[in-house]
Amino acid sequence: MQLINCAVAETPGEMTLYYLAEDQRDAYPAWARGCASLKANRLVEVLGGHRIDGNATDPHHDVAEVMVPVRTLGAILKDARIMTLDLLVVDVEGFELNVLDSVDLNSLDLRAALIECNGSDKANEGQVAARLSEAGLTTFRFRDDLFALDPERCPVAMTDLLAFLGQSPIAPTQDRRNTDVLQTGQTC
Questions:
Q1: Which of 74, 77, 75, 128 minimizes the C-alpha distance to 103?
Q2: Distances in whole angstroms, Cα of residue 23 to Cα of each of 6, 19, 35, 67
Q3: Quick one: which of 11, 53, 85, 176 has the most CB atoms within 10 Å?
Q4: Residue 65 in contact with residue 16, Cβ under 8 Å?
Q5: Residue 141 φ then ψ, to 5°
Q6: Residues β-bridged to residue 36
Q7: In 3-state terms, what secondary structure has residue 36?
Q8: Could you tell me if 63 and 21 are in contact, meaning their C-beta atoms sit under 8 angstroms apart?
Q9: What pLDDT was estimated at residue 172?
Q10: What is the four-CA torsion angle of 101, 106, 107, 111, rounded to 10 degrees?
């Protein structure tokens, strides 16, 4: 595994990354401490109403910024010689289209994708679904996010995939060999 410390967008260069200011970390729940976005308003929207210290400060004042290098996803994958993706996960707080537009999805052997959309921007969600469809994937709503796959090329068993997505069975699988025994009340 190789970690690459950069933002991903359709144009390489530099961009401003907005994040929860260090001096405000204790004023928010733990989940907010890792939130960041290339869109200031998106981060403010995420933070809004979640202060736990009772202070009614405008979330704009709780956001810090830093310049970060930007690369395209296509360039990152090319440099790493990755041509097949079993699962592409995109969780970028409102920058989904920029990430998808930074790579030729049709040139990848892309089998599945999970795109966090949070269900709040239906127009953006429709454009994300269109990009995935153009890449030959069938898109489904999964809670507030989009899950897309090519059933013909997805090498992962659906039960494993659902477990990865945090889903567990609500009823155990019955042993079909014992179905008659269970129905008649006989014991083994």
A1: 74
A2: 23, 11, 14, 19
A3: 85
A4: yes
A5: -80, 135
A6: 19
A7: strand
A8: yes
A9: 53
A10: 100
3-state SS, residue 99? helix
Q: Are 61 and 91 in contact (CB under 8 A)?
A: no
Higher pLDDT, 48 or 165: 48
> Six-digit token pair at 86?
């079993």
Q: What angle do CA 85, 89, 94 make, to 5 degrees?
A: 135
Task: Please check whether residue 12 is in contact with residue 71, taking contact to mean a CB–CB distance below 8 angstroms.
Answer: yes
Structure tokens at 82: 């990755």
Q: Which amino acid is at 81?
A: R
* DSSP classification of residue 59: G
Q: CA-to-CA distance for 181 and 186, rounded, in angstroms?
A: 5
Give the 3-state secondary structure of residue 18: strand
What domains are defined for the chain?
7-70 (no CATH), 82-164 (3.30.110)
Identify residue 55 by its one-letter amino acid code.
Answer: N
- Other CB atoms within a 10 A radius of the CB of residue 159 amount to 11
Using DSSP bridges, classify how beta strands 112-115 and 88-90 pair: parallel, antiparallel or unpaired. parallel
Confidence at residue 154, expressed as pLDDT on a 0 to 100 scale: 63
What six digits make up the tokens of 184? 């008649």
Average pLDDT, the chain: 82
- Measure the N-to-C terminal CA separation of the chain; round to a whole number of Å: 50
User: How is residue 162 annotated by DSSP?
Assistant: H
Say if residues 45 and 103 touch (Cβ distance below 8 Å): no
